[in-house]
Specification:
Blueprint lengths: L1 E5 L3 H12 L3 E5 L12 H4 L4 E4 L3 H12 L4 E4 L8 H11 L2 E4 L5 H16 L4 E8 L9 H13 L5 E7 L6 E7 L4 E7 L4 H14 L4 E4 H4 L4
Parallel strand pairs: 1-2, 1-3, 3-4, 4-5, 5-10, 6-7
Antiparallel strand pairs: 6-8, 8-9
Helix pairs in contact: 1-7, 3-4, 5-6
């Protein structure tokens, strides 16, 4: 397969490496080559099996509009743009595109979502809190993953109020801690990414999965198929 990776950041570079390891061809396009989506023409996009976006919230929205309008297959791991989600889902459906998005492409984080739901059911009277730590250059806060963990907890128990504390420091790839506390004990579910490779592996496998497909999916809906 041939993949187009949008973004020359740290995660984009790792995605390109992982895709090569999987035996795929890769073209990486950075911001300087794609100002105002100038690179994302229909003839150019037609040459790729899937587009993978790990850019910034602002760039991702423009990239999605350009790519989905051509009916392309697209995997979006950028977060911070979900106020536009309904518009993007509608555009993908109208143009017959393939659109797969997610707040976190780590298979381990998908397990955390399931555990969060179970914990919310098991100890509904406890106080819940999420602490998330990321690298200093991360644009959005709280992280999309933290918001998804809170969503998982509240889907299982809508009465729970879940505070999120965000920290930005150094080059931290990502740490998320969900705690449930009572006056007598503390339960923690912790996920720490030691590198960006877990996200890259999931994104490449997602691109392999969506190639040739038409529809709209959240990564959590199809992660167990990979």
């Amino acid at each position: 397969m041939l993949f187009l990776v949008l973004g020359r950041g740290k995660t984009g570079r790792v995605i390109a490496d992982v895709a090569h390891e999987h035996g795929h061809g890769v073209r990486v396009v950075g911001e300087e080559e794609n100002r105002n989506t100038m690179a994302l023409t229909a003839p150019f996009l037609a040459g790729f099996d899937a587009v993978i976006d790990f850019t910034t919230p602002e760039a991702a929205v423009a990239n999605m509009r350009a790519c989905l309008a051509t009916g392309a297959r697209m995997v979006v791991g950028t977060t911070g743009w979900y106020q536009h989600l309904n518009d993007m889902r509608t555009l993908a459906a109208r143009k017959g595109a393939g659109f797969l998005y997610g707040t976190n492409f780590s298979i381990g984080v998908q397990a955390v979502y399931r555990l969060a739901r179970e914990l919310a059911i098991a100890v509904p009277s406890y106080q819940f809190k999420i602490t998330e730590t990321h690298h200093a250059s991360k644009k959005d806060a709280p992280s999309g993953t933290a918001l998804s963990i809170r969503q998982a907890v509240q889907a299982a128990n809508p009465a729970l109020n879940v505070e999120i504390e965000s920290k930005r420091e150094g080059d931290v790839a990502g740490v998320h801690v969900l705690e449930a506390r009572s006056g007598d004990e503390l339960i923690e579910i912790r996920h720490e990414a030691f590198s960006r490779r877990a996200f890259a592996e999931g994104a490449v496998r997602a691109a392999e999965w969506i190639a040739g497909k038409t529809g709209v999916w959240d990564f959590s809906e199809i992660a167990d198929q990979l």
